[in-house]
């Protein structure tokens, strides 16, 4: 069940947190000032002691956490509500405007998304508002993204499914009931595999499979905005937007793995073009169900869909970030442990979570106290889904995030997993597309190169797309746009670098000027600005190295006595600064320094 956003309360902790931080800082510096005249503790020593104290505290916390983990087993099941990317609402022809920002790009499919800048209450039909006499008209096209999602989640699509009414009164639900699929959902028995690269908890090993009990189609509710103490505004644009609810089995046992599961589900839904936006824009919301039980004991009475021996669950509704999922589960687990350890009983209830908080808070009482009076919707006929449609959609499904990871870390691209993951996830797939453009151009330029060089080029391209270009975007606070640095330019830059015609630092300078709008072709730019590497002779390197050494003989001694090779970098930096721009190659400079400093 969906609940409106709760804005009140969110402000409190945030507004005080900076003050709490600076108060702590102020205290310790004051303590320092007063202690200086008497104890004369040098600042560095004080800082070291503080750091040691913090480390000890962290260790204690970790030990306590581990002790509680040994004693209590956490169980989590997740429900995800995702807005489908459709042109109309679920039961009316009311159109949904194309998003002007923040959507998942234009995935295969209908390409529409609810715009965040819509005028409130402008996209509503009579049925959406439950006007008397209005009738539902199931919009068959809304089923397509739902099916793509269910197929991508390896579900068995049900040949016949039905819609039911779930009754409750709330101002965001004009009909007094939500149309959902309670008894016969359209998809069942799927699963999602989570790997170590998805960020699962180390104690879960390198792979966790989470079964998906079912995926059901249902209506979204209106959006409400609270203006305490007594005003609440309602925007019905969202009402009856098609949603899927994905329900996992209670098979997750760590908070990090629960967050990884939600992140992975979002990535899968995004990759098959099923959804409008991600959690950050409210297109995906998660409810987490949390219970604990003593390890080795199954005395508790709760069971769920054939899994028995579970502890009493509580449900935390409407989480809107991966971090919130993890933090809310940690807080709720600790609360339940405290209740049971003090001899209390965990009540089945619905709880809420405020970002930045350390505790979940009770929203509604006992589970089961609400009687939704589910009944089949008499106005909507059963949904029949043919095998032919399923097999066509299955055949058209784009590569899954896992197969993309396998491809990118495989021999053809050879990317480290830490580069492959963000490439896939950033900018709704646009970064990956750009990367592939760069690699394709590189392979055209170096058409005669062997497979090993192709992999080297692909690895270099990954680094430049992600870290160098990404770094410039972060520094200038600009959003992703493939035109800022044309793929052609970046490919030629990487090619020149790989062919050792320019140094790494020259490449960075050139990237920055292309980023700032220089549109000359890279070979021309390098030629005109005299940036091509004219290798220095050995004598020239030695002269530069000797000049750098003369600047800091003490450091030379240190390096020699303690064999501190790491400190050679300082001299390399000096040589790069004093040498002619773009001509000093760092590895060669280091080689000469080694000879002069360490081997003499
Ligand atoms: N004892 C338990 N501990 C942890 N998770 C549980 C437990 N029992 C059930 N769950 C999880 O709770 C979720 C129940 O979702 P489901 O949609 O079936 O029911 P619901 O929460 O009553 O429905 P809704 O919130 O949509 O009205 C599932 O993800 C399931 O895995
Ligand atoms: Mg549910
Ligand atoms: Mg629920």
Automatic annotation (TrEMBL):
Identify the SMART domains for this entry.
Answer: GatB_Yqey (SM00845)
| Cellular component per GO, a single term | glutamyl-tRNA(Gln) amidotransferase complex
Q: Report the EC number(s), separated by commas if there are several.
A: 6.3.5.-
Primary localization: mitochondrion
Recorded hits in Gene3D superfamilies, A to Z, give:
1.10.10.410
Give all residue intervals belonging to the Asn/Gln amidotransferase domain: 433-597
Q: Which keywords, in A-to-Z order, does the entry hold?
A: ATP-binding, Ligase, Mitochondrion, Nucleotide-binding, Protein biosynthesis
Biological process (GO), any one = glutaminyl-tRNAGln biosynthesis via transamidation
Record's HAMAP family?
GatB
Q: How does it assemble?
A: Subunit of the heterotrimeric GatCAB amidotransferase (AdT) complex, composed of A, B and C subunits.
Q: What does this protein do?
A: Allows the formation of correctly charged Gln-tRNA(Gln) through the transamidation of misacylated Glu-tRNA(Gln) in the mitochondria. The reaction takes place in the presence of glutamine and ATP through an activated gamma-phospho-Glu-tRNA(Gln).
Family that this chain belongs to: Belongs to the GatB/GatE family. GatB subfamily.
Which PANTHER family is this protein grouped with? GLUTAMYL-TRNA GLN AMIDOTRANSFERASE SUBUNIT B MITOCHONDRIAL AND PROKARYOTIC PET112-RELATED (PTHR11659), GLUTAMYL-TRNA(GLN) AMIDOTRANSFERASE SUBUNIT B, MITOCHONDRIAL (PTHR11659:SF0)
Q: What is this protein called?
A: Glutamyl-tRNA(Gln) amidotransferase subunit B, mitochondrial
Task: Name its species.
Answer: Penicillium alfredii
């Amino acid at each position: 069940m969906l609940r409106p956003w709760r804005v009140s309360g969110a402000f409190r902790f945030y507004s005080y947190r900076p003050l709490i931080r600076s108060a702590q800082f102020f205290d310790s510096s004051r303590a320092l000032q007063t202690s200086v005249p008497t104890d004369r503790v040098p600042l560095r020593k004080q800082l070291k002691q503080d750091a040691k104290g913090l480390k000890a505290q962290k260790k204690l916390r970790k030990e306590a956490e581990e002790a509680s983990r040994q004693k209590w087993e956490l169980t989590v099941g997740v429900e995800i509500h995702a807005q489908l990317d459709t042109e109309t609402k679920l039961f009316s022809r009311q159109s949904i405007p194309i998003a002007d920002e923040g959507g998942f790009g234009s995935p295969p499919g209908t390409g529409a998304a609810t715009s965040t800048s819509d005028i409130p209450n402008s996209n509503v039909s009579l049925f959406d508002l439950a006007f008397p006499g209005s009738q539902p008209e199931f919009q068959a096209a809304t089923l397509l993204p739902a099916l793509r999602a269910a197929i991508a989640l390896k579900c068995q699509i049900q040949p016949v499914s039905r819609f039911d009414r779930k009754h409750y009164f709330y101002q965001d639900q004009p009909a007094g009931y939500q149309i959902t699929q309670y008894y016969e959902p359209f998809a069942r028995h799927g699963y999602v595999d989570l790997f170590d690269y998805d960020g699962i908890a180390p104690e879960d090993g390198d792979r966790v499979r989470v079964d998906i009990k079912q995926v059901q189609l249902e209506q979204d509710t209106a959006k409400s905005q609270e203006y305490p103490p007594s005003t609440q505004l309602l925007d019905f644009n969202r009402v009856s937007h098609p949603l899927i609810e994905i329900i996992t089995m209670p098979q997750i046992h760590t908070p990090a793995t629960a967050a990884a599961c939600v992140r992975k589900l979002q990535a899968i839904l995004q990759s098959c073009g099923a959804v409008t936006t991600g959690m950050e824009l409210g297109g995906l919301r998660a409810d987490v169900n949390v219970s604990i039980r003593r390890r080795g004991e199954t005395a508790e009475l709760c069971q769920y869909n054939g899994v028995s021996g579970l502890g009493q669950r509580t449900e935390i509704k409407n989480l809107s970030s991966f971090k919130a999922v993890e933090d809310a589960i940690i807080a709720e687990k600790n609360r339940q442990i405290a209740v049971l350890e003090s001899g209390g009983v965990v009540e089945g209830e619905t709880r809420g979570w405020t970002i930045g908080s350390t505790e979940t808070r009770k929203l509604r009482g006992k589970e089961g106290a609400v009687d939704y009076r589910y009944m089949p919707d008499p106005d909507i006929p059963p949904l029949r889904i043919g095998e032919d449609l399923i097999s066509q959609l299955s055949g058209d499904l784009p590569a899954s995030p896992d197969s993309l990871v396998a491809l990118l870390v495989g021999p053809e691209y050879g990317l480290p997993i830490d580069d492959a993951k963000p490439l896939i996830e950033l900018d709704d797939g646009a970064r990956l597309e750009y990367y592939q453009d760069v690699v394709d151009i590189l392979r055209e330029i170096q058409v005669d190169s062997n497979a090993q060089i192709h992999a080297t080029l692909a690895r270099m391209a990954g680094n430049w797309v992600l870290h160098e270009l990404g770094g410039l975007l972060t520094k200038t606070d600009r959003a992703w746009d493939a035109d800022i640095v044309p793929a052609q330019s970046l490919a030629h830059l990487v090619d020149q670098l790989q062919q050792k015609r320019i140094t790494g630092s020259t490449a960075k300078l050139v990237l920055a000027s292309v980023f700032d709008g220089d549109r000359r072709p890279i070979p021309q730019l390098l030629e005109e600005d005299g940036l091509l590497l004219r290798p220095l002779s050995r004598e020239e390197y030695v002269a530069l190295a000797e000049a750098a050494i003369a600047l800091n003989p003490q450091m030379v001694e240190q390096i020699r006595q303690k064999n501190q090779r790491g400190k050679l970098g300082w001299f390399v930096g000096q040589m790069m600064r004093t040498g002619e721009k773009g001509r000093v190659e760092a590895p060669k400079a280091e080689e000469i320094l080694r000879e002069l400093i360490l081997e003499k």
